[in-house]
Amino acid sequence: DRYCNRMMTPRFSPLARRGIITGPRFTPIVQALPSIVPFVAPEEIERSRGRRFAVRLGANELTFGPSEKAVRAMAEASSSAWMYGDPKSYELRAALADQHGVDPLNIVVGEGVDGLLAYTAHLLIAPGDALVTTRGTYPTLNYFVAGRGGHLHTVPYGDDDRQDLDALLAMAWEVDAKVLYLVNPDNPSGTWHPAKRIEQLVEGLPPGCLLLVDEAYHELGVDFDANAHVAVDDLRVLRLRTFSKGYGLAGCRIGYALGAPEIISAFDKVRNHFGIGRVSQAGALAALQDQPHLHSLRGRVAHA
Fold this sequence. Notes:
Layout: H1 2-8, H2 14-17, H3 28-32, H4 42-49, H5 68-77, H6 90-100, E1 107-110, H7 112-124, E2 130-134, H8 140-147, E3 151-155, H9 165-175, E4 179-183, H10 195-203, E5 210-214, E6 237-242, E7 255-259, H11 261-264, H12 278-289, H13 291-303
Parallel strand pairs: 2-3, 2-4, 4-5, 5-6
Antiparallel strand pairs: 1-7, 6-7
C-alpha cells in the first residue's frame, strides 16, 4: 500500500512548493477536471492488491486470442519495427473497403475505438456543445467530451435494458445535440437494436446532429448484419469498429471508422498520423483476411 500511495501521489519539487517555479498554465477546462482516469487498469489493481487476478474479465478481452495468421504476420513484421507505420494504413484500408463494399475514402484507421472517440470529440465538441448518450453505457466518450468543455445529457436505459432510442432522440432535439452516441451492441448490457431501428433513428435526427454508432462488439453480436443498410455516405452517421474484441487484438490498439468522405477526411486534421505501428497494421490485416477464424470464434464465444 505504501508503494501504491507513493506511485499515485504527485511529487512536487521544493522550488514548485515555494512558488519559484509555477509550471505550465493549464487551460481552464483542464484545471476544472478531476485528476482521474476513466478506467483503472487490471495491472494497477493487481499492484495495489499485491497479487494477480485468476481471470481478467473487466476489460472484455478475448482470451481465446487472435488468429494464428495474425500472430505470424506480427512476428514477421516485428523485424521492420524500426520503421514508422504507414500513416495512411493503405493496405488495411483497401482490405477493409473490399470487406465492406465501400471506397477507401470511407475509412480512417485509428488507435482503437477509444482513439477514434477522442478524435471525434476533437472534431465536433467545443465548450458548451451538447452530446446525448445513455446513462451507464460505455463511458469513455464522456471523458473526452468533458475534456473539450462539452455538456453531457443522459437518459436511462429502457425497461427492456436496451438503450431507449426514443428518449435519446427526444433529448437530442431538446438540447440541440451535436452528437447522439449509441453503443450497438451495447456495453455493458449486452443488448442491441436491429438495423431497422437504427435506420428509423437516423431519419429522426435533428438537423446538424451526428449519430455516432460504436460497433466495437459488432463481430460478436447476434445480428451480424446490423447496420448494414445504413448508407456509408450518409453525412448524419459515423460508425466505429475495432480489432480489439472479435479479432482479439486489444493490445495492438487499432480500429477504424466508416463514414462519408467529408467526415473521414476531417480526421486528417487532428489525428496522430503515425499512431498505428507497422506490427499492429500487419496483425489487423491478417486477422481481417482470416474470416474463417472469426466465424469459428463466434461459435466458441456463443458456446462459452
